Automatic annotation (TrEMBL):
Its main location: membrane. The lineage of its organism: Bacteria, Bacillati, Cyanobacteriota, Cyanophyceae, Nodosilineales. Coiled coil: none annotated. It is found in: Cellular thylakoid membrane; Membrane. It comes from Vasconcelosia minhoensis LEGE 07310. One of its GO terms (biological process) is photosynthesis, light reaction. Keywords: Membrane, Photosynthesis, Photosystem II, Reaction center, Thylakoid, Transmembrane, Transmembrane helix. This is Photosystem II reaction center protein M. It is a single-pass membrane protein.
Amino acid sequence: METNKLGFVASVLFVIIPTVFLLILYIQTASKNTKA
């Protein structure tokens, strides 16, 4: 079960981290477009 839990945590982080990174880039771009 420990392996499954670690795999689940790794999968969640593998999805969340890039998603947050893309959201930050999108927000920065959107704010730049709004200011311009």
